[in-house]
Amino acid sequence: MKNVIILFDGSCLLCNAWVRRLCSWDSKDVLRFATLESNTAKIFFEEHNLNPNSMETVVFWKPKEMYAIEAKAIFEMFKTLGGLWGLLTVFNFLPNFITQKTYRLIARNRYKWFGKSSDCHLPNPKYKHKFLD
Fold first, then answer.
1. Pair 41, 34: CB distance under 8 Å
2. Dmax over Cα atoms in the chain, in whole Å?
3. What pLDDT score was predicted for residue 40?
């Protein structure tokens, strides 16, 4: 299986907590991570002609194949993890406006509810290979 790149908000404490969890749950070792401010993200935004300033979201990206943002990105992550995590994709059958509204509610309030960091969180050395620039 090819690697998948997850672009995330590096200053968001909720996002960082999720990334740490995803590292440990990724038994197939296919997930790679980069912040929305990274060179990897810059390449993604240029390649897909997207404005990086208009996106405060998570991006699931299979280079040269597809990408998904917001709630759809979360469902793609669960599908990629497989196993019991794949069961959570059942929520993907909810109407898009429900999953997107839920995602956006959490995203809009993530700093207020979970906090924001100005420091870069260094990955566990065991997972250092998963992080891109």
1. yes
2. 40
3. 95
Q: What angle do CA 57, 129, 56 make, to 5 degrees?
A: 10
d(CA 36, CA 7): 6
Grade residue 39 by pLDDT with cuts at 50, 70 and 90: very high
Element (H, E) at 104: helix 96-114
- Rounded CA gap, 4 and 7, in Å? 10
pLDDT at 7: 96
- Alpha-carbon distance of 132 to 35, in angstroms, equals 8
Nearest one of 14, 4, 46 to 121, comparing CA atoms: 14
103 CB contacts (<8 Å, ≥6 apart)?
70, 71, 74
Strand ranges in the chain using DSSP code E only, listed in sequence order: 4-8, 31-35, 59-62, 66-69
Give residues with Cβ within 8 angstroms of 61, minimum separation 6: 4, 5, 6, 7, 44, 67
Q: How far, in Å, CA of 112 to CA of 96, rounded? A: 25
